[in-house]
Write a structure and sequence with these properties.
The structure holds two protein chains of two kinds. By secondary structure, chain A is α/β, with parallel strands linked by helices. Chain A has six helices and six strands, in the order βααββαβαβαβα. Chain A has helices at about 35-40, 45-60, 100-105, 120-130, 150-165, 170-175; strands at about 25-30, 65-70, 85-90, 110-115, 135-140, 165-170. The longest helix of chain A is centred in the N-terminal third of the chain and has 16 residues, at about 45-60. The chains are: A alpha/beta, B alpha/beta.
Chain lengths: ~190, ~220
């Protein structure tokens, strides 16, 4: 495993801030990819990107953690993550769960974040992760909001002030940093 | 009793608090940190006068008043490395010496609440190292001890600390209402978007009201 992967060309800065991310100190959080959320938001494309990103992450030794809100199962494409899924009741995967303890135990410092909806579960969870000091990168094309305007707005708030809540990049920027050709879009 | 609270059960004044977020010199005053960064403090500064009105109403009504201050310990042991780095690259880092003392360090001149909204005896002050008023503070315990489960949220900034606090209040089962004419962001577009987002899902996380709604609610509420 390399000491660090190359930084990702993100907005507003090359992520992560200290240039240090690898398979041991980084996790991919997949938030709320459940059947009804994917259907309600018509987020099949974002799900496809997230699934490909998860495959890529596993190959790099990056921990992949999925969150499951309520009783509805994760989508079948993420079935392999069900047994370790973070179970939560509300709109924040840290609240009332062992997620922080789990991340700390693994030595995780950096979080790649994707999920549904951007303006709900995703942003609430990223805000808490940021307060906890995790270095967050929101994967913009693997997340979808209740409207395009709200998606854009939450990303603007994330990047304001040189990254109030971290940075934003699309999956192509992640692939480019890893010198992988092609893209993750299936659509 | 009114459409102020999302929850329709009767609300008692003893179960309410006015939560005033981060109305500090560094965020709201000419010469403060945000001003030193070259950003415009006119939006945040403009909230002082309306918050004076709701603060006066809250004091007359006898509801609990809570002030928060974002800041870090002088040794910066509670300052995440990425938060320090981002602000330094932005122009003036948290913990570094600026025109208002060390930026967002507890006890420094710029970290103080603006004099127009200074806390008085009996009001709670919550010192917070994060964006959410609940993160690494005893706010939740303080509310529980007082039997408070309804928060009226004002202050700055609407897209940042106000939104984080509102979302975290919802997670804790608190009824939260933001007064949209008593909160602002540095960028007007981000404020408008924050209000739109907080209204999403028909008030899933709480409500959005204004000064008139707040004062009318107080007049009708039982002690």
């Amino acid at each position: 495993m390399p000491d660090t992967f190359p930084t990702i060309a993100a907005n507003p800065y090359a992520w992560p801030f200290d240039g240090q991310w690898n398979g041991g100190d980084t996790a991919l959080l997949l938030l709320g990819f459940q059947k009804s959320a994917v259907a309600d938001l018509t987020a099949q494309n974002e799900l496809a990107v997230a699934v490909s990103l998860a495959d890529l992450a596993r190959g790099l030794g990056i921990a992949v953690l999925a969150s499951q809100r309520g009783l509805e199962a994760l989508v079948s494409e993420l079935a392999m993550y069900r047994s370790e899924a973070v179970q939560h009741r509300g709109d924040n995967a840290f609240f009332g769960t062992q997620l922080e303890a789990n991340l700390r135990r693994r030595g995780i410092r950096n979080l790649l974040i994707a999920g549904l909806p951007t303006d709900g579960l995703v942003h609430a969870t990223q805000r808490t992760a940021n307060d906890m000091g995790f270095e967050c990168l929101l994967v913009s094309d693997a997340s979808k909001a209740t409207s395009p305007a709200r998606h854009t707005a939450q990303l603007r708030m994330t990047t304001f002030g040189n990254g109030l809540f971290g940075a934003v990049a699309d999956s192509a920027a992640i692939l480019a940093a890893l010198a992988i050709s092609g893209n993750l879009h299936h659509a | 009793m009114s459409d102020f609270w999302p929850e329709i059960a009767p609300a008692r004044r003893s179960a309410m608090a006015l939560l005033i977020i981060d109305m500090q010199i560094d965020f709201c005053a000419p010469g403060g940190w945000v001003d030193q960064l070259g950003e415009d403090v006119s939006n945040t500064r403009a909230m002082i006068a309306p918050i004076q009105r709701v603060l006066a109403a809250a004091r007359v009504a006898g509801i609990t008043v809570i002030h928060t201050r974002e800041g870090h310990k002088p040794d910066l042991s509670d300052l995440p490395a990425n938060k320090q780095w981002r602000t330094r690259v932005h122009g003036l880092g948290i913990g570094d010496m600026g025109a208002t003392g060390r930026i967002l360090v507890r006890g420094e001149p710029g970290w103080q609440i603006v004099p127009e909204l200074a806390p008085i005896d009996g009001e709670l002050i919550i010192d917070k190292p994060g964006k959410s008023s609940f993160y690494a503070t005893d706010l939740e315990e303080q509310l529980q001890q007082r039997g408070i489960d309804r928060l009226v949220i004002v202050g700055v900034t609407s897209d940042c600390c106000v939104q984080s606090t509102f979302r975290d209040g919802f997670e804790r089962g608190l009824e939260c209402v933001v007064l949209q004419d008593c909160t602002a962001a540095v960028e007007t577009a981000n404020h408008a978007a924050a209000m739109d987002i907080l209204k999403a899902y028909g008030g899933r996380w709480g409500g959005v009201s204004d000064i008139a709604g707040f004062t009318a609610m107080l007049e009708r509420a039982d002690a």
